[in-house]
Amino acid sequence: MSKYSGKYDLEERTAKFGEDIIKFCKSMKQDTISKPIINQLIRSGTSVGANYMEANEASSKRDFKNKICICKKEILECKHWLRMVATALPDKREVSKVHWK
Q: Which label site among 4, 14, 17, 91 has the fewest CB atoms less than 10 Å from its CB?
């Protein structure tokens, strides 16, 4: 079961996910390999909540669907970068897997 499961609204869950990604990224050592991966992970991980907030204020059903689609894409991108973290920083592999499940 995901640590984001429960009776939280999606706005809160996506914000919490972004915060957890920031904390996780701050715990990593940065070098020439990990720095771009960390930057991409922060961008995609925090973008989910921002796009969800925009979806909640959509001007139409079509706009809402489009923004939710962007949220889904950002989650998939985030999962990709978490996998790259697991490869680039083997000591962070287990924590990385917790976030992508």
A: 91
